[in-house]
TrEMBL record:
Ranges where the DUF6536 domain occurs: 3-144
Secretion signal span: 1-18
TM region(s), chain numbering: 43-64, 103-120, 398-417, 486-508
Keywords: Membrane, Signal, Transmembrane, Transmembrane helix
Protein name stated in the entry: DUF6536 domain-containing protein
Pfam families reported in the protein's UniProt record: DUF6536
Record flagged with keyword Ligase: no
Matching PANTHER family: DUF6536 DOMAIN-CONTAINING PROTEIN (PTHR35395:SF1)
């Protein structure tokens, strides 16, 4: 145990001298996530940890057995008080009837075993870099074939599609699209959208070389269902079936609105982009109250909800179900009014002859109709690969707790050897037999055979039978009969409760799409 302590203490000093904060993890080894080296190293380190913890706990357990076993002197004192002590088994009865030093040392070894059980394995773990911000380009199949695009896309999604200059409530409260407001229309008219144009141009140039994801895989990866972040990919192009959209066939706008949009989104030209947005996903805690108790529950805050939605609670997406999004959902607040004010800019989105009517053609030939709502079907995704790094890391606080626990164990064991000295503990029944043969008990009590059945019978009734010589009856007995029925029942109850708890936790993990 002392050698293990010195080795672990050296590792702790090395981690502390790494120059980073004590609360930060120490990265032992870093490699590209495409390699299996980090996973293999983590497995080897955990095997070593399990071996070391087994040695430490076995050594500690031996000392605890010795401390829990009475000496001959303590047995004689108990007999003088007409009490008995257990020999050969771990006993709570003994713990409070032996010397205070033994009891204190036993509890010290017991308590220092808890951090080793709980923290040693957890102190070494795999760590990878994940990102939650990503750019989404929703485009047609012709987008990756070089078809021109005109921003903000065929959806004409700008800030004015959702609110006018005085009312921002609908967009603010819904959190429908992204971490930022859509750009205002004047940004496109004045040419102040270079960042968005650069992102879409890069997607158009490189998306053919990106990794193709099937709809279900893409939906699960970028939705808030798992909220586990992106490890192998970043930006994504969501490809909709079809070759693009003409504004004249998607929108029915007033003469003023049509002339305004003509300068940046020609009405008769094919536009290969529907919308382009910067999105994000990140975890946070949301407060809730149950019976006047405040709970901080984990919650995934994912923008782009209208595209990367999530299945119903406790459900999953059917593998063969097509991935569609309802077009009307993108503008669901545009044909509402708030305090009597229209939530869209009528000079940009109003239909001809009726300023209160939103100009989107819900009967456009580009849309399919299901349950009275227009929708478009997604063919696949093209995800941009990213070079992510994985590390095998050491948690310094957890590792410190383990090293400190082993130090206390080493000091306790040294003190036990010094204090107990040559005192012989009756650890096994054989030790007790040898002791009573070599030094007989001077008491005047009668001796005789004492069986499990004799003890159980006299425990349940108030009659006591005197011990004395008995004729030995050679009977075949099952080994299980040595353990009382109440012990069997209690043991299986604990095991069944553990299995039920694990089953409930596993089902909760599956329902909430939490990674294992």
């Amino acid at each position: 145990m002392s050698i293990i302590f010195l080795a672990l203490f050296g590792i702790l000093l090395a981690s502390a001298s790494s120059g980073k904060s004590f609360s930060q993890a120490w990265q032992l080894y870093t490699e590209d996530c495409s390699s299996d080296t980090t996973a293999s190293l983590s497995t080897v380190l955990h095997l070593i940890i399990n071996t070391l913890s087994t040695i430490v706990l076995a050594s500690s357990n031996f000392f605890m057995q010795v401390l829990n076993a009475p000496s001959r002197e303590e047995v004689d004192k108990a007999h003088a008080k007409e009490e008995w002590l257990d020999i050969g088994i771990p006993s709570w009865r003994n713990a409070f009837r032996l010397s205070k030093f033994k009891t204190t040392a036993w509890f010290a070894l017991f308590l220092t075993s808890i951090p080793i059980h709980m923290f040693f394995n957890s102190s070494v773990f795999l760590m990878n870099a994940r990102m939650g911000d990503f750019h989404v380009t929703v485009a047609s199949e012709s987008f990756v074939q070089g078809e021109p695009f005109y921003l903000p896309g065929a959806s004409l999604m700008t800030r004015e599609a959702l609110s006018n200059t005085t009312v921002d409530y609908a967009y603010y409260s819904s959190g429908m699209y992204s971490t930022q407001y859509p750009l205002p229309a004047k940004a496109y008219f004045n040419g102040n959208f270079s960042g968005q144009a650069r992102n879409v141009s890069e997607a158009a140039a490189h998306a053919p070389d990106w990794h193709k994801l099937e709809p279900l895989e893409c939906r699960e990866m970028y939705s808030k269902g798992t909220c586990s972040g992106l490890t192998n990919y970043k930006s994504v192009a969501v490809i909709i079936k079809g070759q693009g959209w003409k504004r004249s066939e998607v929108w029915n706008l007033s003469t003023t609105a049509d002339r305004t949009w003509e300068t940046i989104v020609p009405r008769s030209q094919i536009n290969s982009v529907w919308i382009s947005q910067q999105c994000s996903m990140h975890g946070r805690s949301s407060g809730g109250r149950v019976s006047d108790v405040t709970l901080n529950l984990p919650f995934c805050d994912s923008q782009c909800l209208q595209l990367f939605d999530e299945p119903e609670a406790g459900d999953t997406w059917p593998p063969n179900e097509p991935w569609i999004f309802n077009v009307s959902d993108w503008y669901e607040s545009s044909h509402m009014s708030y305090w009597g004010t229209h939530l869209f800019n009528t000079s940009l989105y109003a239909a001809p002859g009726n300023k209160s009517q939103f100009g989107l053609r819900y009967d456009s030939p580009y849309f399919d109709i299901e349950a009275g709502s227009p929708f478009m079907e997604i063919s696949h995704c093209l995800a941009e690969p990213r070079n992510s790094t994985c590390s095998v890391a050491l948690s310094k606080p957890l590792f410190f707790a383990v090293v400190l626990s082993i130090l206390v164990k080493v000091m306790a064991c040294i003190l036990i050897v010094k204090v107990l000295g040559k005192q012989e503990s009756l650890v096994t029944p054989g030790d007790a037999i040898a002791s009573f043969i070599s030094t007989q008990d001077d008491s005047l009590y009668d001796s005789g055979l004492l069986t499990q059945q004799f003890v159980r019978d006299n425990k349940s009734i108030a009659l006591y039978h005197a011990l004395g010589p008995q004729k030995w009856a050679n009977k075949r007995r099952k080994q299980a009969s040595a353990v009382p029925r109440s012990v069997w029942i209690g043991t299986y109850i604990v095991l069944m409760l553990g299995i039920i708890l694990l089953t409930v936790a596993f089902r909760f993990q599956l329902q909430n799409h939490m990674p294992l």
